[in-house]
């Protein structure tokens, strides 16, 4: 019995290291899997080439004039009629307009003092409505 | 020398297993290697308030082909962590754009309150530099937030 007793105490005197590898690999795989590189999100737009100016007939343009207060004034190409709306309402307007004229171009004209976020709101609404032909300009008095 | 079992058993038993005691060291080495070499963001974040957009999409381009331009509330322009004036933007971006063989995507990170005049000046500078692909970097807006607004 004395031999058996000494064996037992010897077995528990060390920390078991055989599972250490499993723990380390588990951590390794956990960190490999959970590491995500943050990808930037944003609203993509294609700028015109320098010197490129396209002539567009007025009836294909819808003017979106962003005032410094964030109110958007909508003017359809030829008519003098104006309509005021919030940036969120542009999406519905665009969907409505584009069904009657597929060649429509949105000319977003922002007041120089208007915060950037209002332009982003309008651009966001146009992107949501799948508008592709967008022109960004600054509003001149 | 007449040992029970033939005498060979002991020596062959010692080499029958792959030594696993160093496995933990290897695993920890790999773990630490990957932790040290993981780089999260190349340039420091500037203190800006992000604009929010619902239809924001991920920029589908390699990280090395994205050039971040920060536009601060007072009109300060930062390209590659260096402060620049608006007039310098064209001369800085144009060679970078040529070096990337026209694959460069400009990520414009504007403060949400920055007056649009600065954004327009920056756009003009980018057009003059010949840049075509521009992304207005925003944070994703949840539709729940939008409804509450």
Summarize the structure.
Chain B: GO terms for molecular function: transmembrane transporter activity. The complex is a heterodimer of chains A (141) and B (149). Chain A has 141 residues and is an alpha/beta fold.
**What would you say the CATH architecture of the domain at 59-138 in chain A is?**
2-Layer Sandwich
Please tell me the overall pLDDT of chain B: 80
Terminal Cα separation of chain B, in Å?
A: 93 Å
Distance from first to last alpha carbon of chain A: 104 Å
Q: State the major sheet of chain A.
A: 5 strands, mixed
- SS elements, strand count of chain A: 6
Structural class of chain A: alpha/beta
Helix content of chain A: 25-40%
Low-pLDDT stretches of chain A are: none
CA-atom Rg of chain B in angstroms = 28 Å
Give, in order, the helices and strands of chain A. HHEEEEHEHE
Q: Which term fits the overall shape of chain A?
A: elongated
Beta-strand content estimate of chain A: 15-25%
The side-by-side strand order for the widest beta sheet of chain A comes to 4-3-2-5-6
What's the alpha carbon Rg of chain A, rounded to whole Å? 32 Å
State the oligomer.
Answer: heterodimer
| Largest interface, chains and sizes | A-B, 47 and 55 residues
What do the pLDDT scores of chain A average to?
81
Query: How many strands, what sense, and barrel or not for the largest sheet of chain B?
Result: 5 strands, mixed
Q: Count every helix of chain A, treating DSSP H or I runs of 4 or more residues as helices.
A: 4
Helix coverage percent of chain B: 25-40%
Written overview of the protein:
The complex is a heterodimer of chains A (141) and B (149). With 141 residues, chain A is α/β, with parallel strands linked by helices. In chain A, strand 3 and strand 4 form a beta hairpin. The model of chain A has no long low-confidence stretch (mean pLDDT 81). Chain A has a 5-stranded mixed sheet with strand order 4-3-2-5-6, with helices on one face. Chain A contains 4 helices and 6 strands, in the order H-H-E-E-E-E-H-E-H-E. Chain A has a domain of 80 residues: Nucleotidyltransferase, domain 5, CATH 3.30.420.270. Chain A is 35% helix and 23% strand. Chain B has 149 residues and is an alpha/beta fold. Chain B has a domain of 96 residues: Nucleotidyltransferase, domain 5 (2-Layer Sandwich). Helix content of chain B is 35%, strand content 19%. In chain B, the strands form 2 sheets. A 5-stranded mixed sheet of chain B has the order 5-4-3-6-7, covered by helices on one side. In chain B, helix 3 packs across helix 4. The longest helix of chain B has 15 residues. The termini of chain B are far apart. The model of chain B has no long low-confidence stretch (mean pLDDT 80). Classes of the chains: A alpha/beta (141), B alpha/beta (149). Chains A and B meet through helix 2, strand 1, helix 4 and strand 6 of A and helix 2, strand 1, strand 2, strand 6 and helix 4 of B. Strand 1 of chain A pairs antiparallel with strand 2 of chain B.
């Amino acid at each position: 019995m004395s031999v058996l007793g000494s064996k037992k105490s010897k077995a528990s005197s060390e920390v078991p290291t055989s599972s250490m590898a499993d723990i380390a690999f588990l951590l390794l795989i956990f960190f490999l899997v959970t590491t995500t590189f943050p990808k930037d999100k944003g609203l993509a737009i294609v700028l015109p080439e320098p010197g490129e100016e396209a002539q567009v007939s007025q009836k294909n343009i819808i003017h979106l004039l962003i005032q410094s207060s964030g109110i958007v004034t909508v003017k359809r190409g030829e008519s003098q009629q104006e309509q005021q709306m919030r940036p969120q309402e542009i999406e519905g307007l665009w969907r409505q307009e584009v069904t009657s004229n597929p060649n429509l171009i949105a000319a977003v004209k922002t007041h120089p003092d208007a915060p950037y976020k209002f332009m982003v709101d309008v651009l966001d609404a146009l992107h949501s409505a799948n508008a592709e032909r967008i022109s960004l300009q600054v509003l001149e008095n | 020398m007449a040992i029970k079992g033939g005498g060979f058993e002991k020596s062959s038993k010692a080499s029958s297993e792959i030594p696993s005691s160093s496995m933990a060291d290897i695993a920890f080495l790999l773990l630490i290697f990957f932790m040290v070499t993981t780089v999260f963001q190349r340039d420091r974040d500037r203190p800006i308030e992000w604009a929010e957009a619902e239809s924001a999409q991920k920029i589908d381009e390699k990280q090395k082909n994205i050039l971040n331009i920060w536009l601060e509330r007072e009109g300060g322009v930062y390209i590659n962590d260096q402060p620049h004036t608006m007039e310098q933007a064209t001369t800085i971006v144009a060679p970078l754009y040529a070096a990337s063989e026209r694959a460069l995507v400009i990520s414009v990170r504007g403060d949400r309150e920055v007056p649009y005049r600065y954004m327009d000046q920056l756009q003009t500078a980018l057009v003059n530099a010949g840049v075509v692909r521009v992304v207005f970097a925003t944070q994703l807006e949840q539709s729940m937030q939008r409804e509450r607004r």
